[in-house]
Amino acid sequence: MQERPPDIRVNIIVGDQMDNAIKTIYETVKVRDPNQLEFHQAVEEVLDSLGPVISEYPDYIDVVHGIVEPERVIQFRVPWYDDEGNLHVNRGFRVQFNSAIGPYKGGLRFHPSVNLSILKFLGFEQVFKNSLTGLPMGGGKGGSDFNPKGKSNAEVKRFCQSFMSELWRHIGADLDVPAGDIGVGGREIGYLFGMYRKMANEFTGVLTGKGLSFGGSLVRPEATGYGLVYFAREMLATKGKSFDGSKVAISGSGNVAQFACQKVIDLGGKPVTMSDSSGYIYDASGIDREKLAWVMDLKNNRRGRIKEYADHFDGIEYTASKPEPNHNELWGTNVDVALPCATQNEINEAEAQMLVSSGVIAVAEGANMPCTPEAVEVFLDNGILFAPGKASNAGGVATSGLEMSKNSLRMSWTREEVDQKLEAIMVNIHKNAFETAEKYGMPGNYVAGANIAGFLKIAESTMAQGIL
Ligand code: NDP
Description:
This protein is an alpha/beta fold.
């Protein structure tokens, strides 16, 4: 057998030394890409959970060794002209992380903060998330440092067309199927799909989150937010609790936040906060259906700021963000359930402490990695029900998986059928994470349960196929 290069060699060892082998892999990740802090954070969280699995299946250490390196990373130039005729040059990326169990699948993010570290963290998370859905999807992620905020429709269209004029050659219905994420909603997916169709000269289910008139799935826009609340409902039920009558803090006011809010209302809960990167609103009387419809119009059609909610409705408190854009006092609100649905690392240790002090029962991540590792520790140490995003926000990609099947089969399901399938998938992910945590001696630890359950399926497929 060929030796691995010494710098990345990990000896196959057993027992207590196994933890050291995992640590060596983590150290290698850090040394290789010292500036990719978000990626390190995501890797550390997963590797921290895998000790008991590697003790049971020592051969899987090779899978761990391979899984932290993306199979392929594509970076490209995205030139486009604004409405005044000025040239802008952005960076485009696609990280094709792991295809052991199916074609790469994961969203595209358009946000000025996008860089390789963020996309590698998101792609890595996606690998485990997609595995947890039980559907045959590998993991990937992509995007650009383009900021759609404040751009005209025509500018967004020109950008999307330029982006896809390169990306199209790297994706395909059986190869890599992107979707939306921050800054990429129905409008962007439409422009991206149009350009793909022109370049590839084929109409195929290469993107998900498409409009209903060209192959999209009912309930896809709602799926991540609805799925999050289905997962949180299951988690609450393990303690004999429910959303009925509970106060809920939601951050963000984009796709995930909007539909999480809607489902909380459906289940009898009272959402009291929403936010954007400028600040948050607190509505003591609760965000009801009518107010939520107003927020949806504000955000999806008028592309306004959440501050306008406080100007429009009576008795609302608005608090601007602290200088660090993704931190504010939203988490000091007295609530039963917290659903962070904006962005990564939006709840730090101090903010987690505030939630615990105010008596929160459950925290479920709608965004990807919104809680720092220190915040997660606070929740786990205090016996708070805590759902990691890779389990609780998997409803979006699960419904994308259904959209892929629907496109391949050239058929469709009703809204009720898709919602029922989504709910069943979320109930199953909850059960899987819950039972896996129990089996590996960490009852109630959904972080470990989700990481291990997601990993096991990939490890089995990887060993069967060989590490390539
Ligand atoms: P949207 O772009 O629709 O909404 C994002 C929301 O978060 C906006 O309110 C935005 O405010 C706010 N936000 C973004 N960045 C920051 C920041 N740095 N600080 C404070 N607020 C911020 O995105 P989505 O709702 O689609 O995604 C939200 C999260 O959910 C992301 O982490 C995403 O990866 C995750 N997710 C999304 C899925 C989906 O199906 N859409 C699936 C699974 C996970 P502003 O407008 O001011 O920027």
